[in-house]
Each structure stands twice: as structure tokens, then as C-alpha cells.
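Every protein is a chain of amino acids, and every chain bends into a shape of its own. Below is the pair of lines this work produces for a single protein:
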Amino acid sequence: MGCRRRGRLYLMENFLGVPDVGFWLTVALVIAATVTTFLGTVTGTAGGLLLLASMTFFFPLSVLIPMHTMIQLGAGTSRMFMMWRYVKKNLIVPFAIGSVVGAFTGAQIFTTLPSEILQGILGIFILVVLYTPKLGAGGPERLRFGILGAAATFLGIFVSATGTFLSPFIAHASRDRHVHVSTMATLMAISHISKLVAFGFVGMAIGAYLPLIVLMILGTVAGNWVGQRALTRMPEKLFRRIFQLLLTILALRLLIGAALDAGWLDGFV
């Protein structure tokens, strides 16, 4: 009897063979993947960042980044296929070239830049691009997105959820919410593929987590399916307002987080 109980306990703690992940945590993570993907579809941003934040409590960084990348690849790919007719296809090749460069550069180097400095730079940059339309639309479009491919994927090696960084540029390049969401999904899928290949070359292995990853990807497909239908019913102006408000909040969160990590707010909190 004791052996049976221990066996059942082991299965609950290592559901589907995933280390230290039980049945109820699996259910919670699949629901989180579904809900955050839905939110990412109807707002044009933040889905990946919200999922990353929820996963941070349960996985070490060495597992979290490649695992989150695979899940977001599944989310972006399914969204891309569902909304392919809206994608700005002229941006795919230059972004892909930049992505490969950024991924292999980021995976091979050791960064000494403190995380709070990186967060602060990203927060300021997002706000400047979001509220300065000419900057977000400056230069030839294909060249701009080639550079963005390298920058977003390089940053993604260290912080994973870089859709927030890319979002304001896509907003300036696409004036329709369907084009925005579908193009964002396509470009981020390219970025995630580049990162996963680079992770493989430097020996990051997460095979034990594949059952959980597959279940969470299925959750993202459901989130995309529902989200796409909600997006079609949403007025364009409402989408833009929600997008701008949410991206502003996320950028301010990065700045506050950077200030807290650096100890600049110790006298206030």
C-alpha cells in the first residue's frame, strides 16, 4: 500500500514525467497559456510577457527562456496561419536575416550589462518610439525591420519576451489591427525559431519538459482561435487605445522594476 501511495504521489509531482511539475500546476500553466494568448491577440502585445511573468515562479532561468520560446513559437505560428492573409509579407525576409544574426550573436556571448540597466533602456525606448511616430517609421521599411530582427532576437536571448520591444514599430507600419496582430505573430515566430536553433547549438536541452510544452502550445491555439474572433468584432480605434495604454503600462513597469532593482527607490518604498 505504501509503495502505491508513493507511486501516486510521484505521478502527481511529476505529471507526464515533467520534473517537479504536478497535475494541478500543469492545468494552471495550460490555462495561463490560453488566457495570455487570447489577451495578446486582442491587444496586439503583452501576451508573451504576461506568460513569462507567470512561469518565472516555477522554472529556473536556464529552463524558462528556451521553454517560453518554444511555447511562444507555437502561439505565433498558429496565429500566423489563422491570419496569414493579413501578414505584411515584405517584412519577412529582412527580419529573418537580422534574426539569425541576433540569435547567434546573443547565444555565444556573455553579457555583463546589469539586468536593471537593460530593463530601463527598454522601457525608455518603448515610450519614445510609441509616442514619437516619426522615429518608429524612420528609414526604409525593409532595412528598419532587418535591424529590428537582429535587435529583438539578440535581446530575446536574455529576456525572452521581446514582443513589447517590437510592437510600437509594427504599430507604425500597419494601420489595421489584423495586419498588426498577424505581422507581429509572424515576425516573433521567426525570432523564436532563430533563438531555438541558437540554443541548440550551445547545448540547452529541455526534452524532459516537452509534454508540458505541447499541452501549453495547444492552449495557445485555443486562445488564438477565440482571440481572432474577438479581434474581428473590436473597433479599430478601441484596439489602438488599448494597445497604447497597455504598452505604456508595460514600459513604465520596466522602468519601475529597473529603479527598484538598482536601489534608486529605497527611500520611497
User: Anything to note?
Assistant: Confidence is low (pLDDT under 50) at residues 1-11.
